[in-house]
Amino acid sequence: MTPTRQTLLDTLAEGPVRGPAFAERHGVTRAAVWKQVEALRDAGFEIEAGEEGYRVVAIPEYGAEAVRYDLRAPYDVEFHDALASTNDRARELAAEGASAVVVLADEQTGGRGRRGRGWTGPPGGVYASILVRPDRPPAHAPMSTLAAAVAVARACDPLGVQARIKWPNDVLVGEGESRKLSGILTEMESEGGQIAWLTVGIGVNANVDTDTLPAGATSLQALVGDIDRAAFVRRLLTLFHDLTADPDTVLPAWRERASTLGRQVRVDTPGGKVVGHALDVEFPGALVVETPTGERRVHAGDCEHLRPV
């Protein structure tokens, strides 16, 4: 999207726009404004021209333009009907020097889960990879994962869906937080003791038939019917940006949404199983577990909630 078109789109999100005034303010011709309006119409926006100027009366159902419209976070958006992996595409963009880009796909055919597991996403979901270059050491990367989980959970609130988080990043819903709604995978490269780039891959089962999902998963469609995915993604990106812009807010926000804290858990780690009572989460995302032999701090692993004895 050209800078002029993006500026016009941002201005239209605030209300009607008079073409001559916009042209003068931004140093372009009236013909150029009309050309950008037509380009937005071609992209699926319904724009009326009246006494007050141009006014948006409807936006596209889903895609880059629909997400950019009234987005309150400084990200560019790249949309694909289908991709093998949004994280892989974000990695390609990182190699090209890009930053602050969100890769979106309607369908994901060859994604990755944690610990190298395969993961696919049927059409109708939200599959997004946020590429950023935070000025932080690699050890801080888990904070972005926690922030993404909080952002997903909070983005569900306006839909009437109460979502909770199982450590570190599975978003759960339903009675006893028994159904998985979303998963997150963070990947990064470092250079000189700093993060060179970081990608947070987020998959949300949005307008997806549960028959296409693995056992134990559910979708927003099953809970509340089809949702406006563009509006959901805008909320998600804004929440993620606000959290990561103020890192001190991430852990308290995660604790508020935690399903794991206070439970008996078993965590499969590279060094073996850790079983005990989940007490807290500490910077940069370690789960504190009280075991029969004392407190353990677990930095990575698969967490299972155990039934009370």
Structure description:
29% of the residues lie in helices and 34% in strands. It has nine helices and 15 strands. It has helices at residues 3-12, 19-26, 30-42, 64-68, 86-95, 142-155, 220-224, 229-245, 250-257; strands at 46-50, 53-58, 76-83, 101-112, 118-121, 126-132, 164-166, 170-173, 179-191, 194-204, 264-269, 272-282, 286-291, 294-298, 302-305. The strands form three sheets. Strands 3, 4, 5, 6, 7, 8, 9 and 10 form an eight-stranded mixed β-sheet that branches. The chain has a five-stranded antiparallel β-sheet with strand order 14-13-12-11-15, with no helix packed on it. A two-stranded antiparallel ribbon has the order 1-2. The termini are far apart. The relative contact order is 0.11.
Main sheet, how many strands, which sense, barrel?
8 strands, mixed
Nearest-integer average pLDDT: 93
Globular, elongated, flat, extended or rod-shaped: what is the shape?
elongated
Helicity range of the residues?
Answer: 25-40%
Low-pLDDT stretches are none
Strands, total number: 15
Task: Name the assembly state.
Answer: single chain
How far is it from the N-terminal to the C-terminal residue, by CA?
57 Å
Strand content: 25-35%
Specify Rg, calculated over alpha carbons. 21 Å
Query: What is the overall number of helices?
Result: 9
